[in-house]
Amino acid sequence: MAAQQTYRLFDVALKQRTVLSPSLTRMVFAAPDVANMKTDGPDQRIKVFFPLPGQDAPQVPQGEDWYARYRALPEGERAPMRTYTIRALRPEAGEVDVDFVLHGETGPASRWATHARIGDRIGLLAPDAQVADSSQGFEWKPPADVQRVLLVADETALPAVAGILEDLARWPHPPQVQAFLEVAHDADVLPLAAPVGAQLFWLAREGAAHGQLLQQAVQARVGPLGLRAAEQDLAEIDIDQDILWEQASAPGGGLYAWVAGEAGAVMAIRRHLVKDCGIDKRAITFMGYWRYGKVLD
Asked: Where does 2-127 sit in CATH, by number?
């Protein structure tokens, strides 16, 4: 697979941790080898491997067939792996930032991040700067002539959206931007760099169901757009068995949508954008970053 050729494992140590909000913490990882890491997009995906109890660092197989050997390991011997986003990369300093959502002892990532101390080691499967080919591990690929951007995300996709907004802010003539951002608490609202005129709608759950406020806000503020999209078939995806993931393949009336978060909410929002708003489904990148009650690597 291309991702296995363009990605490789980096052994890094925690250098600094910064509390961004009650639910979000930024981890700065460092190692000299990070000078050979790259990022191809503002929502660059990486895999993070966490050590098992009693280990100083995660033990991950190496080589081209590493993933098959990794999956073949008994669960009790396999380093937990989760998908994250590079928030910032400073190869000249040998540093990479990854933002973690803290939700207690409910999973290996949050558990590790809650208790991690300076010097603790993890593994990052990240793009190799020594390989010229693109990692293809990013989904922010808007058409050059895009006129309107719609971003929808919960806190798991907030690092990616923050990077996307920063990217848009550097455009000489940025498009119109609407961003709907759901977080756990009012105190999780963060100052984000964004293009002039961007509309950012922060939605604090404060006990509401995951994705509920996102769905309601998108339905209330994004209505029929007058687009003449042909009747479109939206195949149902079993989000309890399959990963919900599809990249936009064509612009739709100048609009480009990027939607990520809990898979059930993403499915409902996609259905509204296509069926109720008339947006061409090929203009929507939608990703189930996680599924309530399920573990997705």
From this structure: 2.40.30.10
What CATH fold (topology level) applies to the domain 148-290? Rossmann fold (3.40.50)
DSSP string, the chain: -HHHHHEEEEEEEEEEEEE-SSSEEEEEEE-GGGGGB--SSTT-EEEEE-PPTT-SS-----STTHHHHHHHS-GGGSPPEEEEE--EEEGGGTEEEEEEE--TTSSHHHHHHHH--TT-EEEEEEEBTT--S----------TT--EEEEEEEGGGHHHHHHHHHHHHTSSSPPEEEEEEEESSGGG-------TT-EEEEEE-TTSPTTHHHHHHHHHH-------PPP-------TTTS--EE---S-BTTEEEEEEEEHHHHHHHHHIIIIIT---GGGEEEEEEE-TT----
Residues 6+ apart with CB under 8 A from 23: 101, 102, 103, 155, 183, 184, 185, 188
Residue ranges, comma separated, of all CATH 2.40.30.10 domains in the chain are: 2-127
- CATH 3.40.50.80 range(s) for the chain read 148-290
pLDDT (tens digit per residue) in 10-38 = 999 999 999 999 999 999 999 999 999 99
pLDDT in tens, 240-276: 666 778 889 876 678 999 999 999 999 999 999 998 8
Taking the model in full, what pTM does it have? 0.92
